[in-house]
């Protein structure tokens, strides 16, 4: 009866004759690398990322006390606001793969809901901000239910059409001010009234808190089953559906979360400028800008929308100041050329570029 020889341990002398080298005590062999070297580097990078994040938060908190000019604070407030809007859009488009070009509908819904509740029925603006969120969520479900039957660019075209319809209705609806818009009544400075005329510090920290909340929700989504379902739907909807994922339900969940944060941003905007009309809160250009910030920064990433807003909003303001008075739209040409360069040479966005440098 044939037997199988048991494998014999290779002696150190034979290993040296074969050209190998016996690992020293405490040193990993080439066939079984030690885990400490592979774990130490990621752990170090995580610590470095944590330190950088802490420094970034401290810098954000200290910024209005260092740069005291109202213009600087106004610019950063708008950066934070648009970063939050782009991050909310990223939940639907970046994580779930549904490119929407009609998010201005939810922005305008939040702005009009909180303003109308305050002006018509005397509601507190904070209550109006919270009340506008379920209105925007309900509207997102009404829009998403039929539109998610479409895919790809057809879905994007449908959202553009819905945005134009909603803006036209708002222009012709006198109950919400029509084309004239609405001017919020001035009140004394107070946190309860959500109005601060002598200083922009409260607005700064309120919008910073909204941005941090949106980032935390996005970060939480990334590491949960919900985030895995979103990415599965983005990569291959048919495969996701074949393994039992109800793709329409999760698309609606992504759209509802996105609409909630965009609505809160619209309510904040109404209280910040104290005036709104369909051209300021429901334009197609706003939906496209929200999309561009996420795409340039890095769509589908946690920090991409913030990076895109931190670059493009000041850049837009700089080109407008330096070249906007020429009457030849030079500022728009420069702005568009930079966007084109990023889209052509770095499709993964600025965050993708930073990650590529990090791997080197």
What's the short version?
The chain is mainly alpha-helical and 360 residues long. 71% of the residues lie in helices and 1% in strands.
Short descriptors:
15 helices, 2 strands, 360 residues, single chain, mainly alpha
Task: Explain what the structure shows.
The chain has a domain at 69-283. It is 71% helix and 1% strand. It has 15 helices and two strands. It has a two-stranded antiparallel sheet with strand order 1-2. The longest helix is centred in the N-terminal third of the chain and has 32 residues, at 35-66. The radius of gyration is 26 Å and the shape is globular. It starts with 11 loop residues before the first helix and ends with a helix. Residues 1-41 have low confidence and may be disordered.
